[in-house]
């Protein structure tokens, strides 16, 4: 793993973490500026095609770099569960990951409002992401209003998220009495 | 708990039984908060699926896994019709262990204690040999993984149990296994290197183009595992054959029979939870009913596992995190049988199939090989591969029992057998 970063908390690791985090925030600002999210029907103008291509290019780049960060931390964590630095890095990465998921949700909602075939005919990049467009379209058709989706997302931390945490805590910390009758 | 559950692999039956009883008692003791968690999670999934306009949580899950209801039904029907063959395996295993009927705590018990041990280096060599028979690209990827130390293999304190492969950057992955000097390490290595190969093939795509569903995640791993297992079985001693087949069939029972029980349980759970909270007593009853329908009477009804809904973390994640495992196994085996029928064409088309796992529905992908996943014919073809393994296991058990019945210590037969075991 030393070929990737010298270590958790090393200069190159921290620098990459900050770069990924900054690019996520910049992309969220871009979504805000361009009104990318749940919309009524959007016409496929040149500006929309340009927004799509910028969004997909940047999202892909961030996902690639975040994958390396996630794998690097995960490998440390799973090979030594007592590695405090890895635990702390994982916790930071989860926050980063939750910010990145906002991009995914808003991207899906926006793509659902576009005319997919028209977009594909005007953008090679769209054509090469056909499956993503198809999936986004169905996902968008199965979204609640943006306010409800946001509420559901926030409540999941105290709803199902907390139930999952409770389950994991009980299941991992329970002690078993073992009588060796044999 | 993980240490207690690991005792299910101990050769001493009384020890396994005591560990099982202790485990059941512990789950029973903690059942109330765990049932509350399960009800909370499934309740939320039910409400959100309805509010988002899905017919059911299962429909949402099928969409996310890129398959349709017809494919799921065809697979489940075929699996159910093959349960009797899995039961034959379980009955043969009972014979091998010298018990009338298997209990839950016998499912993972070792069938022989004389299997040869493998060093990590030997296991790696066998994997490379098996891969080389298929293609130089697959061999070279595995060779690179060993040379560049992608694999953390040693078993040690504070390291996670089990095995996984994670994509790191470009075409590079990292693999975690917990090496044990048995033949199962070979299949684990082959399985995880299969994931690494899949990841390497996909590396020419961008992340948003390579997001494949759980149903297709095992396409390469199962294929590679089967490739190497066949290679080992073709060059193995009787005892190793028995151990290797048992390890394979144990895993197949988990991924077909046990997964079917979990699927039935979860269907019932969503049905009941949509009306009200489901109490512990009903969860227990639903779980043992599902096990009765899948394992049948070949598994001692008094020694099933009423708390699998608590023991399996999969219930506490995305809905129906079960059938994709069965799909992955049977799809991978189906592809392997296509390879056996026509290796040349398969080698030509396989990488492009892997490349398309993130860009096509499972049915479209399968049709590249003339496979119709909506028909039960394809699934029974895969299950036939397992049926032949069961036949071979039964024969191996019979040979093993016949050898045990023959004169032992101090006799020529006994000496020959011990020597064979020592040499592997």
Quick structural gist:
Chain A has 182 residues and is mainly α. Chain A is built from 8 helices and no strands.
Detailed description of the structure:
The complex is a heterodimer of chains A (182) and B (424). Chain A is mainly α and 182 residues long. Chain A folds into 2 domains: 11-143, Butyryl-CoA Dehydrogenase, subunit A, domain 3 (Up-down Bundle), CATH 1.20.140; 145-182, no CATH class. Helix content of chain A is 75%, strand content 0%. Chain A has 8 helices and no strands. Chain A has helices at 11-34, 46-79, 84-112, 116-122, 124-127, 130-141, 146-158, 160-173. The mean pLDDT of chain A is 91. In chain B, 67% of the residues lie in helices and 3% in strands. The longest helix of chain B is centred in the middle third of the chain and has 36 residues, at 238-273. In chain B, strands 1-3-2 form a 3-stranded mixed β-sheet, with helices on one face. Chain B contains 19 helices and 3 strands. In chain B, helix 5 packs parallel to helix 18, helix 7 crosses helix 11 (219-234) and helix 15 runs antiparallel to helix 16. Chain B has 424 residues and is mainly α. Chain B has helices spanning 2-6, 13-29, 31-51, 57-64, 69-81, 83-97, 120-134, 136-147, 183-202, 214-217, 219-234, 238-273, 280-295, 308-311, 323-341, 343-355, 362-367, 376-405, 412-423; strands at residues 151-152, 164-169, 172-176. Chain B has 2 domains: 27-113 and 238-339 and 365-424, Oligoendopeptidase f, C-terminal domain (Neurolysin, domain 3, Orthogonal Bundle), CATH 1.10.1370.20; 117-236, Collagenase (Catalytic Domain), CATH 3.40.390. Classes of the chains: A mainly alpha (182), B mainly alpha (424). The interface between A and B is large, with 51 and 54 residues.
């Amino acid at each position: 793993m030393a070929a990737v970063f010298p270590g958790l908390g090393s200069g190159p690791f921290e620098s990459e973490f900050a770069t990924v985090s900054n690019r996520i925030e910049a992309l969220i600002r871009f979504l805000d500026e361009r009104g990318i999210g749940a919309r009524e029907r959007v016409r496929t103008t040149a500006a929309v095609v340009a927004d799509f291509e910028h969004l997909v290019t940047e999202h892909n780049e961030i996902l690639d770099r975040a994958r390396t960060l996630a794998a690097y931390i995960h490998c440390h964590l799973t090979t030594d569960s007592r590695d405090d630095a890895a635990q702390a890095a994982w916790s930071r990465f989860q926050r980063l990951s939750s910010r990145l998921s906002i991009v995914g949700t808003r991207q899906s909602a926006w793509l659902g409002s576009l005319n997919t075939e028209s977009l594909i005919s005007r953008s090679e990049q769209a054509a090469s992401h056909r499956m993503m467009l198809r999936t986004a379209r169905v996902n968008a058709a199965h979204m609640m209003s943006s306010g409800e989706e946001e509420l559901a997302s926030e409540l999941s931390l105290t709803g199902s998220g907390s139930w999952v945490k409770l389950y994991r805590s009980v299941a991992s910390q329970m002690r078993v009495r073992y009588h060796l009758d044999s | 708990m993980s240490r207690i559950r690991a005792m299910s692999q101990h050769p001493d039956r009384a020890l396994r039984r005591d560990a099982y009883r202790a485990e059941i008692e512990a789950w029973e003791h903690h059942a109330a908060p765990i049932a509350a968690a399960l009800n909370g999670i499934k309740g939320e999934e039910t409400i959100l699926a309805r509010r988002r306009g899905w017919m059911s949580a299962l429909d949402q899950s099928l969409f996310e896994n890129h398959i349709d209801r017809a494919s799921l039904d065809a697979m489940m029907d075929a699996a159910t019709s093959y349960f009797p063959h899995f039961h034959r395996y379980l009955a043969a295993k009972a014979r091998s262990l010298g018990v009338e009927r298997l209990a839950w705590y016998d499912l993972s018990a070792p069938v022989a204690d004389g299997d040869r041990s493998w060093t990590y280096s030997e296991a790696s060599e066998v994997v490379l040999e098996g891969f080389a028979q298929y293609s130089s690209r697959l061999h070279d990827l595995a060779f690179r993984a060993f040379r560049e130390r992608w694999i953390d293999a040693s078993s040690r304190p504070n390291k996670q149990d089990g095995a996984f492969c994670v994509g790191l950057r470009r075409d590079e992955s990292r693999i975690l296994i917990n090496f044990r000097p048995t033949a199962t390490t070979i299949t684990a290595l082959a399985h995880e290197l299969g994931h690494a190969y899949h990841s390497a093939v996909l590396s020419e795509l961008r992340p948003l183009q390579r997001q494949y569903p759980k149903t297709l995640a095992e396409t390469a791993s199962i294929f590679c595992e089967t490739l190497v297992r066949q290679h080992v079985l073709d060059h193995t001693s009787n005892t190793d054959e028995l151990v290797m087949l048992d390890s394979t069939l144990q895993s197949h029972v988990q991924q077909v029979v046990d997964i079917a029980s979990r699927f039935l349980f979860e269907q019932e759970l969503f049905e009941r939870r949509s009306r009200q909270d489901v109490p512990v007593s009903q969860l227990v009853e639903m779980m043992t009913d599902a096990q009765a329908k899948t394992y049948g009477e070949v598994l001692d009804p008094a020694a099933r596992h009423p708390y699998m809904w608590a023991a399996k973390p999969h219930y506490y994640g995305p809905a129906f995190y079960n059938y994709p495992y069965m799909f992955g196994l049977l799809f991978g085996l189906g592809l392997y049988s296509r390879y056996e029928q026509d290796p040349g064409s398969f080698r030509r088309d396989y990488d492009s199939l892997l490349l398309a796992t993130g860009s096509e529905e499972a049915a479209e992908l399968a049709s590249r090989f003339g496979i119709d996943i909506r028909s039960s014919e394809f699934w029974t073809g895969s299950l036939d591969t397992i049926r032949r393994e069961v036949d071979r296991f039964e024969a191996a058990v019979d040979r093993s029992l016949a050898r045990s019945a023959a004169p032992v210590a101090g006799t020529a037969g006994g000496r020959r057998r011990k020597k064979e075991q020592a040499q592997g």
